[in-house]
Amino acid sequence: MIEGPGLLQELKAKIPRLRRPLVLVGLMGAGKTSVGKRLAHLLGVGFVDSDAEIERAAGMTIPEIFAKLGEPAFRDGERRVIARLLTEQPGVLATGGGAFIEPRTRTEIAAHGTSVWIRADLELLWDRVRDRPGRPLLRAPDPKTVLGDLLERRYPIYAEADVVVDSRPGVSQEWMARDIVRAVREWDAGRPGSPATFEECVG
Fold it and tell me: Which residues does the annotation say bind Mg(2+) (predicted)?
């Protein structure tokens, strides 16, 4: 990706103040946590990973929850945790890969926040997750095929997000964070009269 001087100057403009939570959605490996932390730092707000909050509330890791309670119980707990987080001080919330697939969770996110899909292709996702443990859904003889199946099923639903930003190899977290701010600003500008995500800086 070419980071041209014109776009860089635009992205380095004054950073607005966040008024509604920014909710990052997408498949495992998309960069929701790493980019989310950088985005929160850029905006001067808090960052929360919903998976980490679920583990803290349950006193178990995500793989343990899946093994002991099953995926339906995990999804129900995930929904309740995300609903709570959306009502707290506006910040950046990174969600698990399956969170946005749950209709009630999508409804909560739409009511209280702005959703941002970090989109990435299969090869990039696989390169990022193949050597990392702790992915219950990839515990299969052919995990790349499982990941591809998840992509096929989930991407049409992720496309319902308010904003879409593409993740590409070699693009820094800083650049991604600023690209999200730019994209959300454009989305806000196209929705006059609707609740704005950002309060723009003046002067």
Answer: 33
